[in-house]
Amino acid sequence: MTNIIIQCLFYGAIMFGIWTALLFTSFHHNHGNNEQKKIQKPESIWSLEKNEHQQDTRGSEQTPEPHLRVESPDEAESKDLAGKDVNYSDPELARGFSLYGFNTVISRRLGKEREVPDTRNKMCLKKHYPKYLPTASVIICFYNEEFNALFRTVSSVVNLTPRYILEEIILVDDMSEYDDLKEKLDYYLEVFRGKIKLIRNKKREGLIRARLIGASHASGDVLVFLDSHCEVNRVWLEPLLFAISKDSKVVVCPVIDVINDMTLEYMPSPVVRGAFNWQLQFKWDNVFSYEMEGPEGPTGPIRSPAMAGGVFAIQRQYFNEIGQYDKGMNLWGGENLELSLRIWMCGGQLLIIPCSRVGHISKKHTQNNFKLMQSLIYNNLRLVHVWLDEYKEQFFLQRPGLKSMNYGNISERVELRKRLGCKSFQWYLDTVFPELEPSMDNI
User: Fold this and answer.
1) Are strands 311-315 and 222-226 parallel, antiparallel or unpaired?
2) Mutual angle of helices 335-345 and 370-387, in 10-degree steps
3) Residue ranges of the Glycosyltransferase 2-like domain (predicted)?
4) Structural domains in the chain, sorted by start
5) Cα dist. 418→340, 346, 390, 415, 422 in Å?
6) pTM (predicted TM-score)
């Protein structure tokens, strides 16, 4: 009899424990749902900024808060795992690298927006910018870009740019072939209605002419060119606009942070300047210590002999006066160095602004695109014959096989150089980039 009583008590205790656990789980779930119901998702990205006058009074040094969003547990978990546990044998990984040049598996996990770490120097946080700044038209050209990477570019600009300085975002689709960049993109862009202009080219124009098309539709005071696989950081635009507001002939670039192509981790970059070698290959170069020792310390503007070209800001009127891009160039390549030389040699300045930070996916392309390589050579030859004067022999010393190759008609660009009263390439070497030392035997 005693054994029976003990067994009944034992099983009763187990049943009581089970019911208690179930009741606790049910209460916790209902409580969580009630808490989430209190949070309403805004109708659009801009819905937290309906009172435009109120935002104006905050001052541009404050970052607009990202719009409120409720994540499901699955989304939160996927973002925690994004960049970790990469399965290198996943065929989808190889396919993504082949098509886009980075890990699209993780890009899908990250989704259409995310927060990135603030990589600015702490001294930048103390900077304040005027309430009234020029307005900006952000131009983003894309061709067969991965959908989520493109959308993160757009949403980061919207979420981290005060509305009163963002005139518009101009998206130029350079005849993309992928389905998700057509009706699907139109559908998702509806949330940004009123701030987005989407232009679809009727034929493939290439990056250079696509950017010119975007610029022709711009109405902002300043043109900001942005690659389609970027994520801007906090208070990214105000420092660029402030520098241009002080001098309309200043062209400015942010510090380009690295978004790793495999993990998509956002990583800070050191403050460096743009440079190139005699083969006209762009490279990053160390900044001289004396440039970091001025009154602004490591947050002051840095003179840069060249720019990478993926992200920069220029006053719209000055862009037109200085000759825009060379329309005779094809597709992509060389336009960044050509514009860099033109800025310096024709009376402007090219600066890197350390308090502005923009992340950029460092794509690794697994395919050799013969057409792109041809365009790069053709464009570089146009640059050489217009801007390098007698120093073009330094380029041909490195690449003698290109000396007899065709580079089209450059008479319009030669005339532009005369009309602008541009200085010689010798002046550029002496004044801007003396570190590019020629071999004196060939001068």
Assistant:
1) antiparallel
2) 20
3) 137-313
4) 73-361 (3.90.550.10)
5) 17, 10, 17, 5, 7
6) 0.80
